[in-house]
């Protein structure tokens, strides 16, 4: 709300600023300790307008007057910053993001276009930060493209990672119940979803069945060797605003006990935690012991939407174990994950800048220890 | 609406008449060609009241003045009829239903209590009508108890039966998204389900993992040999009024093609169809080819809620095949199935009566052929 | 479902057949005793396609294969019928409907364009059937245009009419809670309406404040003298599929008692009832005595959606009386009202035809007497 | 989250701590700069249990381990504090609250029981802080009872106050669309409200038609002279989690322009603002110029739920002006208003304490000036 003195922050731009993901970037970056939004870019029909006039603001937190008055620019690599966050639609993202990368920009993309390209990191900072190294082999001289996974994949791959580490996984079956915010705006007509479930989301099952294999894969000479397991996904749209719920069953390569699995989740941690990155939750995974949890409405905002909540771990008569997970689809599953990617890039020295990022205070997030002590979860 | 001349119909009573299932029995029986409701029985707090005063009517079709004025009786075996439909709660159903059976009544029960008892048929008329024979060995001299499965099981077991017949099944994974009407009334608080999914329904997963094994089992000397397969279930409550949606994957014992499976479903038929029972749909299973189908709101009322709708059959990377099914939980999954059980008992001569049931006209239901010709499904 | 012998029915066409109102026309006319749909017309992008391919069918009742296979035609006055029902959008309805009327067609329109034109009847058959005479002075040699009111106005004007007749009305205050189906398809984005109310519907308040004055006005020499009263409307969109609920308060010109007002509503009847028109409810208004009624989900389908339900009549501390009314917005408030208009035109001899319409059987609707006897309302 | 050093805070207790309002008190007080919760009291069935075990926590913010472990006490005037907040049910509140007041406690009550008692202030701090003086004449030697209004009344009376001040009001018509959280828990069954509106809330209309007259009345010798105007209310329950929306029309005593009314709202301010009380919003009323606003989902959380949002001011054809208002029913309309009452009591010296409250920092709330500059409202 107050007029910040932004002189020491890193300037960033938003591509696709008017869409649902673009707005979420703006909301999450509005008080970011490292980044300052200096450019908003969108498609032709918004260009030249004031941002506040160019879109319908959908976020909970009011848009600042400063950004509302900012003129929307074209998605051309002339933006006054080095880093751009891309919330572009998959159809147009490919070409535009490459233009930016070729022009020397660091493109932090939420779009699906480059995710499975061999030299592009598909990153969840807690899960596979070592994949960042791929950018060294990208064909761009100075720029680079880093992507985050599909909104349903982030929660799933995060939940699977500690199991992969400790026991290995052979098979995964997942059925999703996905929030309407994942379909963008106007997205799902109310006539279709009120008093209903839609058992189909175009292209979603394919992403869930492939992206985790790359994410959980091994960095080898200039490429990722995919993790060898099979995933089967069935995707449904439900009348929930935010938060994707997933019923998962897994077949492990080695035997585990329930207590061991829960402990693996609870103790799971990665570079964002080690570096105390600003957007990093204290625990990437929270295990909830109440058999009715996790629930989208109750738990999507835990740790400001950056933790994956898991519950109901129990034996599966068909595979080995089954459980339910929840992650906030537009925060952990999209804009929040992308911002964490950018923070990691900076902290690991991939992007040059003048500020001492690692001295920033850590936000006050919920740790697994606190969850254990709380009665509500 | 009109005052019927009921003289030729078979008198029936409803146990647990004030609850959600009891009301559904009344709605579905209100214009039944064979049955006439002559007694409404419920727990002590309703007894003596006029039925219209004793409960809050929740059905879409108005309650007839005749039944609204009927006095609610105690659940004692003194009702003026031979057949009683039981919509009693599981907690009290056991004792009451046995009292009635011992007193010579035919108890058609929707309650869970007797479902897994070895000499009680757990019946879906299209699936295992031969199990009816079990009643011969029931300990009751003249009465009997016949049950229908849990509301989520009816759709599942019906969908699995043609596959069991033709290829055999080894493993089933099912994730349900269940309607709020399944929780009775007042049931799920709106505060819990609006903008939410609840990933837990008490006792439901256990029923889904066991009941189908009995239903698909083989009648042997005085008992059912359970079908040998493993089922894993994960149950969720969603903000849908009626209609349980289930994401299913199966491992078959023998190879099948997609076309063969669909054909097995489309041509599936049982005694209710052969006998043209009044409540029988022309096709127990309708296959919908639109990849967005089935949906609760669009398809739960097909064939007046008595058909199971299936769609999205495709290869499963983990098991063999996956698909989505839908059945109306309070009709096909509860009261409608029970009424079909009663019709079958009569038609097969298990209950003596004076009317020529098989000359009744068949209601105008949707056949698979018509579905194939329709654009909406 | 069965192949009807249509030879004796009156052929009709649907303009704007692919939209929500057009689909409702098709649903309601699919088993109509007098009319047979012989032509489906829509905008350019649908022309030439099979109807089943040209739209997404949204109705509860399956589309018949016959209509699904019918080729969509242009909205040009070459359709093989004399009567057309118009579900066209307001923007294009004006010109097209006039072309049809000039070419000799009887246009039964639900569009807003001609409603307030001085020589066009704005008709609710029970309320102002005498206004039909206006068509004599229309400029079209043989054709004519007849309109029905806005979906919120039908229920309101029907409820007000008996009060106007008996006591006169000076002032009306109305706040509506309108269903999403009134916004067409895709209409209201789910992101906007889930867990929300939108307190604005473009153009709606103006219609509610003016259309009833014409409907309740007096036919004079070639025109309608508007009824002299003031109406204030505030319109809201709520998360309801079908059924507009309205909180109304009125100031009467002469004193009335509660019992007198209820009796005026209960005994209200018009030409549709006198003529036993096929789509006519036995009672245009049903009064419900339970203080929690009417409710959209419980009562919108009473009399197949053709009755207006009223409840909660009580003294108003500001005006004189207040009450709540409900009417089904796409049936009584749109397509059903239009069809009743067409039936009235035929029965009163405005359209020549060869069939004896008045000998048809009356459908079995709920009368106020039956409502009084039922406990559920 | 952190273990606070509470030594300097004022100890308070919560009566009815397990209910919805009690939980909201706990949530809002959990980081309060002046108050520290030292006692949780509830009905017999919760007594002795740990608070975390005694109820189902419904709030968004996790319950702190400290409070979860606190033992629930009886509602007896032996609690170790001077101030108690009462979220008791209306049925039991009367007797218990009087016991506490007689024992010398300051009872800040949200219950309806004492609201209309002549010597009890019915307080909205911005609207009628001068009524606090009533407590001087209360029969309790040392204790006192102060109440806040019904959840629908707080928003209405706040919106009316500037109009009363400047022009006077003769008549008010209000139709509410109220959130389900107002019905407590379990409250409204989902079966009743999904795809529905319930046009009745027991006792609500009476409160709305009477409480504002006292609130807007004039303090005279030991009593309040009610404001002389007539209010008519119609109340509806809608499928919204939080936030009561109200369509209001008013007849003023003197002419006003639209600009003047908006300015009166925007500049409205009271003692909470003058004193910078911790829970006070910078502006009690925010005027939103977008004709689609206010909406529950978008605006209920403005100023942390403590501002009333108003929009759509326009001429009313029946009375003079009409508009739509929104206030958060469990914050501004209940627990938040009560806490503000307590803060005012302390700041004005009605309660003795040792801390310098008025030097506390002001939270960062949205002012009308900021709203004017923002595009989203």
The end-to-end distance of chain A, rounded to whole angstroms, is 33 Å
Number of helices of chain A: 13
Largest interface summary: A-B, 41 and 41 residues
User: What's the pLDDT, averaged over the residues of chain A?
Assistant: 93
What multimeric state do the chains show?
Answer: homotetramer
Structural account:
4 copies of one chain form a homotetramer. Chain A has helices spanning 20-29, 51-54, 65-68, 90-102, 125-128, 151-166, 190-193, 204-215, 258-266, 271-274, 296-299, 331-347, 368-373; strands at residues 10-15, 35-41, 72-73, 83-86, 106-109, 144-147, 169-178, 218-220, 223-225, 230-237, 244-252, 285-288, 308-315, 321-327. Residues 1-6 of chain A have low confidence and may be disordered. In chain A, 28% of the residues lie in helices and 21% in strands. Chain A is globular. Chain A has a 6-stranded parallel beta sheet, with helices on both faces. The first copy, chain A, has a 6-stranded mixed beta sheet with strand order 10-7-11-14-13-12. A two-stranded antiparallel ribbon of chain A has the order 8-9. In chain A, α6 runs parallel beside α8 and α6 crosses α12 (331-347). In chain A, α1 links the parallel β1 and β2. Chain A contains 13 helices and 14 strands. By secondary structure, chain A is of the alpha/beta class. Chains in contact: A-B, A-C, A-D, B-C, B-D, C-D. Chain A binds chain D through residues 1-2, 50-53, 57, 59-60, 62-65, 68, 194-195, 301-302, 364, 366, 370-371, 373-377, and chain D through 1-2, 50-53, 57, 59-60, 62-65, 68, 194-195, 298, 301-302, 364, 366, 370-371, 373-377.
């Amino acid at each position: 709300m107050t007029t910040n003195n932004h002189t020491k922050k890193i300037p960033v731009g938003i591509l696709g600023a008017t869409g649902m993901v673009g707005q979420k970037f703006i909301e999450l970056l509005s008080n970011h300790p490292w980044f300052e939004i200096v450019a908003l870019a969108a498609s032709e029909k918004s260009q030249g307008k004031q941002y506040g006039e160019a879109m319908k603001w959908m976020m909970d937190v009011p848009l600042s007057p400063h950004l509302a008055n900012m003129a929307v620019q074209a998605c051309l690599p002339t933006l006054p910053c080095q880093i751009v966050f891309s919330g572009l639609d998959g159809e147009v993202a490919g070409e535009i993001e490459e233009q930016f990368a070729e022009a020397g920009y660091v493109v932090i993309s939420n779009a699906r276009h480059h995710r499975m390209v061999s030299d592009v990191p598909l990153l969840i900072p807690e899960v596979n930060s070592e994949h960042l190294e791929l950018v060294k082999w990208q064909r761009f001289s100075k720029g680079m493209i880093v992507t985050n996974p599909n909104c349903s994949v982030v929660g799933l791959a995060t939940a699977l990672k500690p199991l992969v580490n400790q026991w290995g996984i052979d098979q995964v079956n997942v059925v999703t119940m996905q929030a309407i915010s994942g379909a963008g705006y106007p997205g799902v007509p109310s006539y279709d979803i009120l008093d209903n479930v839609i058992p189909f989301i175009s292209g979603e099952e394919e992403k869930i069945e492939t992206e985790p294999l790359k994410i959980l894969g091994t960095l080898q000479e200039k490429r990722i060797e995919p993790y060898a397991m099979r995933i089967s996904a069935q995707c449904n749209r439900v009348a929930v605003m935010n938060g994707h719920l997933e019923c998962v069953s897994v077949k492990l390569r080695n035997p585990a006990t329930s207590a061991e699995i829960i402990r693996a989740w609870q103790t799971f941690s990665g570079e964002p935690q080690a570096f105390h990155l600003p957007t990093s939750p204290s625990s990437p995974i929270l295990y909830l012991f109440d058999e009715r949890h996790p629930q989208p409405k109750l738990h999507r905002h835990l740790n400001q939407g950056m933790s994956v909540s898991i519950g109901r771990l129990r034996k599966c008569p068909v595979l080995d174990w089954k459980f339910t997970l929840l992650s906030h689809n537009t925060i952990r599953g999209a804009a929040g994950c992308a911002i964490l990617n950018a923070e990691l890039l900076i902290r690991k020295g991939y992007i040059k800048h003048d500020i001492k990022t690692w001295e920033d205070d850590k936000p006050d997030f919920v740790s697994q220890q606190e969850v254990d002590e709380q009665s509500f979860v």
